[in-house]
Amino acid sequence: MLLKDMLDQLEYKCVQGSDQIMVTELVYDSRKVTKDCVFVCITGTVKDAHDYIDEVIEKGAAAVIVEKDVEVSSPITIIRVADSRQALAYTAAAYFGHPARKLTTIGITGTKGKTTTTYMIKSILDNTGKKTGLIGTIETIIGDTVIPANNTTPESYVVQETFAKMVEAGCDCVVMEVSSQGLMLHRVDGFTFDYGIFTNIEPDHIGGNEHKDFDDYLTCKSMLFKQCKVGIINRDDSHFEEIIKGHTCEIETFGFSKEADLRAEYKKLFQEAGVLGVAYQVEGLMKLDVEIEVPGTFSVYNSLCAIALCRHFGINIEEMKKALKKVKVKGRVELVPVSDRYTLMIDYAHNAMSLESLLSTLKEYRPKRLVCLFGCGGNRSRSRRFEMGEVSSKLADLTVVTSDNPRNEQPQDIINDIIVGVKKGPGEYVEIIDRKEAIKYCMDNAKDGDVVVLAGKGHEDYQEINGVKHHMDERELIREILAGK
Q1: Rounded Cα gap, residues 144 and 233, in angstroms
Q2: Domain 334-482 falls under CATH 3.40.50.720
Q3: How many CB atoms lie within 10 A of CB 143?
Q4: Dmax over Cα atoms in the chain, in whole Å?
Q5: Is the pTM of this model over 0.85?
Q6: d(C-alpha 444, C-alpha 373), whole Å
Q7: Count of Cβ atoms closer than 10 Å to residue 13 Cβ
């Protein structure tokens, strides 16, 4: 490929050599450099690829893209840009033939609800003949291929490569989670989303190598609405006006608010044997009755959001209702059918904010007892342990404290910290360090009408101990317990 063609939509300066050369590949990892490739120097939080230019030249790269002044003794082509991460996004889009232009692209941002909403949208579109790829926190889905995820929003090169594979697999659409980090680090630059969706925003991902403060976090989320054609926004969120500030897209809204274009009315919780759900009516731009077997008000928002998006595809109302009725998301208030006497579910809630939201939602169903099993990850903030323990003890009738991913800490030390928080609330508690034994305790001692939630692991199928990930899937543990193993 001609280097100039790869740089077509990018502002740059050729400070050495020529942009009229042929290059074989686009590379941003110095370990993967090949002869006659173009290498993009990314400045990371740990390593700076500009420091590896001599190594890249030795391996035979034909050109490098930089955002800093560099000195080299080789006649290699040097392309200077303002931001090399942004350059990677634009060059990757060109390198893969602008695959986003061949798909209907849907991006979802927000603090909560991204994962569930992507699966709801995929379920509706797939069920109506629109072959839909997915990129998210749990996995990437390309046709029948499922790839476990490392990041919510992958690096821009991987995004474009994935789009290209989706086109090759015959996909019509792609729905993806767009994190604030993904927006801040230009991982979704190089194309315009057909639809951008905002679920909600609360303080999160602040500090360390993430966002300096909430304003920065909010500003990054709002970037999506300067990079999409149609924005579908939660009208009820208290930061609605800030999110749409400076938008360049058409705006539609959803929510309970009378000002929303698509409204949820007459919400009603329902409970059947082992199932918790919610029903409501949609008014405004569409009129339909909705019933979903996922509990809580947040499920109304997620499904209403999916309806607001899928409305643009002219989907039959009955098909939409049918798809929503059967949608399930691994590890997100995932109901596990084990008994008609009590309800058992798995959820990813792994901080105080998400656990409080989950338990508050479940209490609305007035269970006989609310039982919460969880642990906390090692080598993470100790304050999270105290906070989660206190939240669980205040909202759950029984807290079962167990091990999560202890990493390089002693599981008992983590449990001891959690119990400090648990003792600040009125709830009863037990500690069982082995997670399978803890789950078995919950199942063996469940009473009629109980709701039991296994929190923290969600979609994860491993337990990390001393740097090693051991296979552990709570669904398999439940099956083994039921089989008496």
Answers
A1: 31
A2: no
A3: 14
A4: 77
A5: yes
A6: 14
A7: 10
262-272 pLDDT tens trace: 999 999 999 98
- Burial degree of 166 (CB within 10 A; 0-12, 13-18, 19+): buried
Per the DSSP assignment, residues forming a β-bridge with 407 are 465
Token readout for 244 is 């749409």
β-bridge pairing 228-234 and 250-255: parallel
What token pair was written down for 322? 């049918």
Tokens 């009820």 belong to residue: 236
Amino acid at 368: K
CA distance 355 to 455: 8
Return d(Cα 279, Cα 295) in angstroms, integer. Answer: 10
3-95, which class in CATH?
Answer: alpha beta
Task: Mention every residue, 6+ apart, whose C-beta is less than 8 A from residue 320.
Answer: 124, 128, 288, 307, 310
Question: Which segments of the chain belong to CATH 3.40.1190.10?
Answer: 99-326
pLDDT of residue 273: 79
Which tokens belong to 34?
A: 């090949």
| Angle subtended at Cα 292 by Cα 290 and Cα 298, rounded to the nearest 5 degrees | 95
Query: How far apart are alpha carbons 322 and 308 in whole angstroms?
Result: 16
Residue ranges, comma separated, of all CATH 3.90.190.20 domains in the chain are 334-482
pLDDT at position 449 is 94
**What's the distance, CA 99 to chain centroid?**
22
Round to whole Å and give the CA distance between 393 and 397: 7
36 and 61 Cβ atoms separated by less than 8 Å: yes
Q: Give pLDDT tens digits for 94-126.
A: 999 999 999 999 999 998 889 999 999 999 999
**In the chain, ranges of CATH 3.40.1390.10 domains:** 3-95
CATH class of 99-326: alpha beta
Q: How far apart are CA 150 and CA 20, in angstroms?
A: 36
Asked if 75 and 94 count as a contact pair (C-beta separation under 8 A), the reply is no
- What's the confidence (pLDDT) of residue 213? 74
Buried b (16+ CB within 10 A) or exposed e, 432-456: bbebbebbbbbbeebeeebbbbbbb
What is the spatial distance between Cα 183 and Cα 210, in angstroms, rounded to a whole number? 12
Per-residue confidence (pLDDT) for residue 194, from 0 to 100: 98
Enclosing H/E stretch for 164: helix 156-168
> Listing from the earlier edge strand, what are the strands of the sheet with 451-455?
334-335, 343-347, 451-455, 370-374, 398-401, 428-431
Which DSSP helix (H) or strand (E) runs through 355? helix 352-363
The answer to whether 433 touches 412, Cβ cutoff 8 Å, is yes
